[in-house]
Amino acid sequence: MSLLEVRGVTKEFVTRGEGAMARKSVFTAVDKVSFEVALGETLSIVGESGSGKSTTARIAARLLDPIGGSVVFDGQDVTRARGKDLARFRNNVQVVFQDPFSSLNPRYTVERIVTAPLTYQGITPKGGRQAYAQELMERVGLNPDHCRRYPAQFSGGQAQRIGIARALAVNPKLVICDEAVSALDVSIQAQVLELLMRLQRESGFSYVFIAHDLAVVRQISQRVAVMNRGRIVELGTRDQVFGAPRDEYTKTLLAAVPRINPEWDAKRRQKEAT
Known about the structure:
Elements: E1 4-16, E2 24-37, E3 42-46, H1 53-60, E4 68-73, E5 76-77, H2 83-92, E6 93-96, H3 100-103, H4 110-114, H5 116-121, H6 129-139, H7 156-168, E7 174-178, H8 186-203, E8 206-211, H9 214-220, E9 223-228, E10 231-237, H10 238-243, H11 248-255, H12 262-273
Parallel strand pairs: 3-8, 3-9, 6-7, 7-8
Antiparallel strand pairs: 1-2, 1-4, 4-5, 9-10
Family: Belongs to the ABC transporter superfamily.
Keywords: ATP-binding, Nucleotide-binding, Transport
Pfam families: ABC_tran (PF00005), oligo_HPY (PF08352)
């Protein structure tokens, strides 16, 4: 059974032009999108800006409500979940956002930030919040003694690690990464990707990974969904999508990606096989 099933979800937004007499118009951001994610799997959703991938991610995380379709998590329909049912869902599904600084309260210490999900869920960790926050910091490669610092005292890459630590606090089954590395320098991107993959190997949770960078997607994914104008136009394994794309839009995206060094690619594949 799949951990997450998104079934035919649709989302529309109402927009209005400029001027007092401007008419309203309806924009379909997501149009009958369906996909599944297995436990321990990374499904990447890729597409250009405006393709609907981030809106899809927010629907899957129940940050937005669809006007049609359903979201099923661990066998339970959570599309209209409220109260305790929604709290239970959010205990199992966490989000890492694109801009770490905008998602971290600048007035809170790191300790308070990374243990916030515990507060919302009414969970008291063994050993206390400070010890647990230090454990989370160490787990994501940061100095545990820096828990009393504030977000502004960290670099962008470090701030994103804090966001990842916060997502891990409640031991989720699914982590949704919405352009989680796109705002980082290339060298820092690689470090954060390695961290994300290591954490998945250690804990076995799933990722829905939203990105526009196909080189990043190729590195982290088992399966890839390609979105264009609110619809999934191609869905398959990483090797299928990158090696034998069927849709013309996918071919266009791949043609714009710089060629990957074949020697490096062979080494990566050999590493994954061991």
